[in-house]
Amino acid sequence: MLEEDEVVEIVTYRAEYFDGVKSLWREAFPDDPPWNAAELAIPAKLKSQPELLVLAVDEGDVAGSIMAGYDGHRGWIYAVAVRESHRASGLGTKLIREAEARLAALGCVKINLQVRADNAAVVAFYQGLGYSVEERISMGKRVEG
Q1: Neighbouring-strand partners of residue 10
Q2: Could you read off the pLDDT of 4-58 as tens digits, one per residue?
Q3: What count of Cα atoms within 13 Å lies in the side-chain half-sphere of residue 115?
Q4: Which helix (H) or strand (E) holds 79?
Q5: Among 26, 65, 89, 145, which residue's Cβ finds the most Cβ atoms within 10 Å?
Q6: Is the pLDDT of residue 133 over 60?
Q7: Is this structure's pTM higher than 0.85?
Q8: How far apart are the C-alpha atoms of 90 and 3, rounded to whole Å?
């Protein structure tokens, strides 16, 4: 777990952190589809609720990220990533709690997230934070602009 005297800052994304986020996402999500790449996802996020792209920065280096969104009805959490070197330190929990607080400040009372069905460790992580599996069918469609 993170100690109080450790130098890990929770900050809102700034352009100077782009390369660090890109590197983190490549490490954390090696099989992600191309439309989730930092070059596409970050500029899109900066157009809507940029304050909900939050980073954990350790001595100037990006150690974690979380992206959230709120549509006025539900909040969503995406792109939760923690560098392998910082895993099991409490940093993921810290990022989740920060996103929850920012969403709550916008009036959000329900947060959704999606986890790949075969990722039992991540499901257990979220369950430990009070999230529960809801029986739903997740559907999606790519819309080409």
Answers
A1: 56
A2: 446 689 999 999 999 999 999 999 999 999 999 999 999 999 999 999 999 999 9
A3: 18
A4: strand 75-82
A5: 65
A6: yes
A7: yes
A8: 9
Q: Please write the tens of the pLDDT for every residue from 71-111.
A: 999 999 999 999 999 998 999 999 999 999 999 999 999 99
Q: To which H or E segment does residue 122 belong?
A: helix 120-128
Residues present in the chain in total: 145
Measured CA to CA, the distance from residue 136 to residue 33 in angstroms comes to 23
In order of 45, 84, 89, 120, 143, the CA distances from 92 in angstroms are: 20, 11, 8, 16, 31
d(CA 61, CA 63): 6
Query: What is the DSSP code (8-state) at residue 86?
Result: G
